[in-house]
Design goal:
heterodimer, A: 483 residues, alpha/beta, Amidase signature (AS) enzymes, 8-stranded mixed β-sheet, 3-stranded mixed β-sheet, B: 479 residues, alpha+beta, Arc Repressor Mutant, subunit A, 3 domains, 15 strands, elongated
């Protein structure tokens, strides 16, 4: 059952080949079996089985949607009523939200079953899942290696078939990079397409939730449930949600693909470049036309991102003060002591580093030089994309400079770690949708191809991904030991 | 104040907008609920929740801006003001910084008969913080977040005021205006209308401003005057003593009538303002301004002018009777129901009615005598059914019962005696019984007449018309 696609699972449930309870139990037992991956922070066995029972009744009633009875899992950044939401942090190890995130609410209404909450870098800050209070997640393709981050648990769970599909969030590459490292399909939607309500904020102007699944087809079903305007999120966009599955098989004849030359510069590893070129060759065979595009400001993305994201995070994380919820230090002597020790003891090193950077960037006398300048750069980068996308349908390039690195390999060098996101970060600054799809292997480790589209072109991206997946079988590969 | 010195004063006034729900959440704004029962997940700053702007708060801010002739920003932006405090749940206050919703406007005040225009620099929307409660927690501090997220409009004046008196006049004028506009209930005890004052002094004739001190949270007109006067004196003393005024925030202690230092400029927070990424810019279109402008009530100055012209009031009465919309409306309802000379209404309203309300500590809205019942009383004065003096008796009865003036006059037998023969008989009787004052009057001592009138009124139990009695007496005592 664990190798079936979402449509196959839905068909199996409808034809009573198996019940949702059986399906849920099967995945729960796989989760237990592969605990050493550390993909989950919480497994909500009891509520999952209750939801499965309810779904079975719904399906028997005959008017269940496509996700009814299908087990999924949530990144532990989405607030779930009654189930711990830790955001990968000691700070929220005791936090149980009295509300559901809008995304979670959507899955509940669709009758989906939540298996549990997935491991992640603390407050979504990281590119390797090594910054989790709950320990690193292992990559199913090479268990000595990282799954990427911050949605590392999400990517590992899908690759290892611990859940058929899951949610992730992407602030600078946190869906696409782990999707690439784990050989799965991950889509970061247009900023504003998926509600951020109840999704714990890291950098509000960049954060976006999205689907992580084994194929573009499955991702389309998931996005269908996640997307939509939400009155509780002022930055969500009031625009109708198209049918993401309807155009999956549309022809790619005449599709114009732009290759930003800055993505293929000297910095790109030879093997990686060759793998990406091979994928693009495949698209040429599918009828696409390829052209080079120039995006001169792309190299400014990383510094601009780390100023903006850190600035927003320094403010977003101020609410964790030990006063109302979350971690509180023992026997505080006074208010300053309560703040200092609660935050000092509960935040990890990377979170502290970004809070300090952000506080500095917003300080009187530095604001213009850092925050304001970074916003100007952000506009330049958006303009680069606008110009590039005016002549082509999608842009393509690598997701990461290399494949999954070993656990511990880059933890001592934050700059090296930040460069992991060199190909993904600019897209968040521009607010565009982008997807990572499996495109090959280097030394047994997956490689992701990045497909970037114009605002609200998720359906086109999924179509582009699906046609490729019809022509190739990279996405069907299963890591050893997880067949 | 020492006449060599001139004070320069600017006020920042926080008005709590009277919306049903909070500025960024659906929680109620009602005052006085049990602690933390009116704070939802958004107000508590729980993880993942997001602010959604209350449109009514925006409307109220625009209403204010239009009323002070201000520029309404077509594009204004919410910013985060970052600082840590236990009653500030998110660790930042959502406010407006670089782009406030209301720009340059003005308000005209009058002090000792002199009109003066006070500039208003800006007015911006923001959320209130909660309250820290330091009593009854055995050395700990309690936090009540009911107030957190209540919408505030912070109105910042230019440093245009030169005395505590002007500052109070400005504050009163603003207080009157926001109540007229029904955007704030003006309740100062509950903190709906709070004031911070920026005060500095400079030698008379000097152009540059002196160093200012900010006095925080002064919550009554009386304290504003005292706090500012005290601060002016303090600063002059410092300078004349050879010292320098330091830029700082000071707190007014009403019990000791003094201000004391809270924090210096160096200790001031760096608020690290930046645009709030959770909220979109507020866009105000012409159409909304037009729509709101059409619903603006008659403003206090215009109403005052109209009362002077339409009802022949003097400036002081007009100011009194237009000091609140409810009072002005009450007055006009009486005038209409009465139908006679407005002057009688004006006299009764400024005299007996306000006097009685004042004594009872009531607002016009709670006046036990309705406008209609008051008009009923005034009609009987106008048609000479009762004398002005009797009318006061009837008014007391109206105050304490639900009866109409006519019922009271009837049941108490208070009707004036209109039968001239009956009055004449009593006049004759009194003349006969009081030869001494009669002689005195005839000898040219006019005052003696009053004793006779008093006697007659006593005999008639006040029911004779005093004018009539006077006339008749003089006629009869003519030499």
């Amino acid at each position: 059952m664990h190798n079936l696609t979402l449509s196959e699972l839905a068909a199996g449930l409808r034809s009573q080949q198996f019940s949702s309870v059986e399906l849920t139990q099967a995945f729960l037992s796989r989760i237990h079996q592969h605990q050493d991956l550390n993909a989950f922070i919480s497994v909500s066995e009891d509520t999952a089985l209750q939801q499965a029972q309810a779904a079975d009744q719904l399906i028997a009633g005959g008017n269940a949607g496509p996700l009814a009875g299908i087990p999924i899992a949530q990144k532990d950044i989405f607030c779930t009523l009654g189930v711990k939401t830790s955001c990968g942090s000691k700070m929220l190890d005791n936090f149980i939200a009295p509300y559901n995130a809008t995304v979670v609410e959507h899955f509940n209404q669709a009758g989906a079953v939540m298996l549990g909450k997935l491991n992640m870098d603390e407050f979504a800050m990281g590119s390797s899942n090594e910054n989790s209070f709950y320990g690193p997640v292992r990559n199913p393709w090479a268990t000595d290696s990282v799954p990427g981050g911050s949605s590392g648990g999400s990517a590992a769970a899908v690759a290892a078939r611990l859940a058929p599909a899951v949610t992730g969030t992407d602030t600078g590459g946190s869906i696409r990079q782990p999707a690439a490292f784990c050989g799965i399909t991950g889509l970061k939607p247009t900023y504003g397409r998926v509600s951020r309500y109840g999704m714990i904020a890291y950098a509000s102007s960049l954060d976006q939730g999205g689907p992580m699944a084994r194929s573009a087809e499955d991702a389309a079903l998931l996005l269908q449930t996640m997307a939509g305007f939400d009155t509780k999120d002022s930055t969500s966009v009031d625009q109708p949600v198209p049918n993401y599955s309807a155009g999956l098989n549309d022809s790619l004849q005449g599709l114009k693909i732009g290759l930003p030359k800055q993505f293929f510069s000297a910095g790109l590893d030879n093997q990686m470049a060759a793998t990406i070129q091979a994928a693009i060759e495949e698209y040429r065979k599918l009828g696409a036309e390829i052209q080079e595009v120039d995006m001169p400001n792309l190299e400014l993305a990383i510094p601009a991102y780390y100023v903006i994201a850190s600035a927003e995070c320094s403010s977003n994380l101020s609410r964790y003060d030990g006063v109302r919820f979350g971690y509180r230090c023992q026997n505080p002597q006074d208010l300053a002591d309560l703040y200092t020790r609660s935050r000092g003891e509960a935040f990890g090193a990377e979170v502290k580093r970004r809070i300090l950077m952000g506080t500095y960037a917003l300080s009187a006398g530095y604001y213009d030089a850092y925050y304001l300048k970074a916003q100007q750069v952000r506009r330049l980068i958006s303009d680069d994309f606008k110009r590039a996308l005016s002549g082509v349908d999608v842009l393509m390039g690598p997701v990461t400079p290399g494949t999954a690195f070993r656990i511990g390999e880059k933890t001592d060098d934050p700059i090296q770690m930040y460069l992991e996101d060199i190909y993904t970060i600019a897209i968040n600054l521009a607010g565009l949708p982008a997807m990572s799809i499996p495109a090959g292997f280097i030394d047994g480790k997956p490689v992701g191809l990045q497909v970037i589209g114009n605002y609200f072109s998720e359906a086109k991206l999924l179509n582009v991904g699906h046609r490729y997946q019809q022509a190739t079988d990279w996405h069907l590969q299963v890591p050893k030991g997880f067949e | 104040m020492n006449s060599q010195w001139e004070a320069v004063i600017g006020l920042e006034i926080h008005t709590q907008l009277s919306t049903q729900s909070k500025i960024f959440s659906g929680a109620a704004t009602a005052y006085g609920a049990e602690p933390n029962t009116q704070a939802c997940a958004v107000d508590l700053g729980l993880p993942g929740v997001l602010p959604v702007l209350n449109k009514d708060a925006v409307r109220k801010a625009v209403t204010f801006g239009l009323a002070i002739d201000a520029e309404i920003a077509p594009h204004s932006v919410f910013a985060r003001k970052n600082y840590f405090y236990p009653d500030l749940p998110k660790g930042y206050q959502i406010s407006q910084f670089e782009l406030p919703i209301v720009g340059n406007g003005h308000l005209d005040i009058e002090v000792d008969g002199v009109e003066k225009r006070i500039g208003i620099t800006r007015a911006h929307l923001e959320e209130d913080a909660g309250k820290s409660l330091h009593e009854d927690f055995h050395g700990l501090t309690g936090i009540d977040l009911n107030r957190a997220g209540t919408p505030l409009l912070e109105i910042v004046s230019e440093p245009d005021m030169r005395s505590a008196k002007e500052a109070v006049a400005y504050m009163r004028k603003l207080h009157e205006l926001v109540r007229y506009l029904e955007i704030c209930d003006g309740n100062m005890q509950e903190g709906s209308f709070r004031c911070d004052a920026n005060v500095s002094v400079r030698p008379k004739g000097q152009k540059e401003f002196g160093t200012r001190a900010e006095i925080k949270n002064i919550n009554s007109f009386k304290f504003v005057e005292k706090a500012i006067n005290h601060e002016i004196e303090r600063q002059i003393d410092v300078i004349e003593g050879g010292g320098k005024v330091v830029q700082e925030t000071r707190l007014y202690d009403a019990n000791k009538d003094e201000t004391r230092s809270m924090r210096s400029k160096e200790e001031a927070n760096d608020y690290r303002y930046f645009p709030d990424p959770d909220l979109l810019p507020v866009l105000i279109e012409e159409a909304l301004k037009t729509e709101i402008r059409a619903t603006l009530p008659e403003l206090p100055d215009a109403k005052k002018q109209r009362f002077i012209e339409q009802y022949g009031q003097d400036a002081e009465s007009a100011a009194t009777l237009t000091s609140s919309r409810e009072l002005a409306d009450f007055y006009e309802t009486v005038v209409k129901a009465f139908g006679g000379e407005a002057k009688l209404v004006t006299n009764w309203m400024t005299g007996d009615v306000l006097g009685a309300l004042n004594k009872a500590g009531l607002e016009i809205a709670d006046c036990p005598v309705s406008a209609e019942r008051l008009a009923g009383l005034l009609k009987r004065i106008a048609d000479n059914t009762i004398s002005g003096k009797t009318a006061k008796q009837v008014f007391d009865k109206l105050w304490n019962s639900d009866a109409s003036a006519d019922d009271i006059i009837e049941s108490e037998g208070l009707k004036q005696i209109t039968d001239t023969g009956a009055i004449e008989a009593i006049v004759d009787k009194v003349i006969a019984a009081n030869p001494v004052p009669v002689e005195q009057y005839r000898a040219g001592k006019d005052k003696a007449l009053m004793a006779l009138v008093g006697q007659i009124m006593k005999e008639t139990q006040g029911k004779a018309n005093p004018g009539e009695v006077n006339k008749m007496l003089m006629e009869k005592l003519k030499v």
